[in-house]
Amino acid sequence: MAFIGAKPTNVPLTSADIQDGTVGLADLSATGTKDATTFLRGDNTFASAGGGVNTPYAHIKLSTNQNTGNASNVKVTLDSVELDSASGFDATNDRWVVPSGQAGKYHITGAIMGYSSNSSLDFTKARIYINGSNIAEAWTDHTSNDGESATETITIIKNLSVGDYIELYGQTEGGANPSYFGGDSTISKTYLNLFKIIE
Fold first, then answer.
1. Range of the domain at 179
2. Which of 134-138, 169-173, 177-181 shows the lowest per-residue confidence on average (mean pLDDT)?
3. How far apart are alpha carbons 153 and 148 in whole angstroms?
4. Cα separation of 108 and 195, whole Å?
5. How does DSSP classify residue 185?
6. 182 phi and psi, to 5 degrees?
7. pLDDT tens-digit readout, 45-103
8. Residue 67 domain-assigned?
């Protein structure tokens, strides 16, 4: 910068020399995406705050009753997708598959509503399978108080990799025509829920 007379003495700027609101995002030398969804970290980089939302997420249910046979471990033929933010549902194999770039910890819930047409249901069991293996199960013994239907719910958190797949299995015992109760357009009775946990 040109000047007339004696050269000015270099003096460091202080916060009092800068008017509030005069430094914009474009003036910062930090790396990363500079916008309304990020914050400036101590290492002079921009980062997203908390990952945003719990995605992917899905809610997939059984829409009609599914005959199971008595005391048989049977996979639920999930056939009605209400939510699937990442399109991970594989309708051909009745399973949800972790999409590319979405590895991480997942909160998974399965619900089985068991049914017996003569109100003699003894057991309802729910199982979550990952990659073809049973990794969690729960059941209730209704033998002393038989009824027409009962719901068993199971929840687990698992660390999943891309390509891992989740299936819902169950079991009904006792009574006539044991089956899984399906829902309708507004009610979920037998279903699989999941979402990725933001860390």
1. 57-196
2. 177-181
3. 17
4. 7
5. S
6. -90, 160
7. 766 665 557 899 999 999 999 999 888 899 999 999 999 999 999 999 999 999 999 99
8. yes
